[in-house]
Every structure is written in structure tokens, then in C-alpha cells.
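Quick start: read one record
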Amino acid sequence: MSRILRFVAGLVLIGLALLLGAYVASRADPIVRRTTVTLPDWPKGAPPITLALLTDIHLGNASMDRARLDRIVDQVNALKPDLVLIGGDFLADYDKPQAKVRSRLIAESLVRLKAPLGTVAVLGNHDYNTDPQAVTNALARIGIPVLQNTAT
């Protein structure tokens, strides 16, 4: 019996170590990946444009709080992008009563994004399935347009 208990205890410890490692990794600052995209119709002599893509913020869970989002905004600003694109999923879960509060908190952080050509966003499934209007309104108040079947 003690062999089985030691085996089970070992499995539990391995599981806890994996969970702790996953939590620590989920709280780490994002890794910046760079790529160059060449457009065939880009005007000759026109300067390149630097884009920053920020997506899947998921504010309101254990891995994303306001302090971490502020660090990420600082990290994006340090890259000095010409344009910031935000790919949706601003909200962590489908908690409609919290959507307005979390949307306001997100906007309080994202208003600090600095890009000469601005910031543009789209909503994700978490936003659509919770309260898309709360997210759209909060972003509109800080000058971030939310595109839906439109272009800018």
C-alpha cells in the first residue's frame, strides 16, 4: 500500500509543479516577436510602418490584472509602433455583470497607448458573448475605434 501512496503522492506533486509553472508562465510579460511583411504594391520610397498587435487581453482572471496590463502597455509603447492593432477578447470570461467594470479598467490602461497612426480594435468571442456594447463604448470613449465589418 505504501508504494501506491508514494506513487500517488508523486503524481500529485508533479501535477502541482506543472500548475505552478503554468501560472508563473501566464503572468510573465509577453514575448515580442518581430517579422517583416513586404507588400508588392507598397509605394517605392515610402517608409515602412511598424505595427504592434496586442490580442487576447482577457482582463479579470488570475493571469491578467490591471498591473500586468499596464506593464504590457508600457512594453508596447517602448517598441514605438506607428499603429497598434488589438485583436479582441478583452474580457476574461462571460461575466456580464462585471463587463462594464472590466471594460472601464481596460480603457484606463489602453488610453496610454502611443502610436502616431492610432489604435484600432476588433472584438473577440468573449466580448461578443458577454457585453460587446460595454467594451465598444469604453474603447470609443478613449478614441479607439472598434471595427465590425468595416475598415479604416
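Residues 31-141 form a domain with the Purple Acid Phosphatase; chain A, domain 2 fold (CATH 3.60.21.40).
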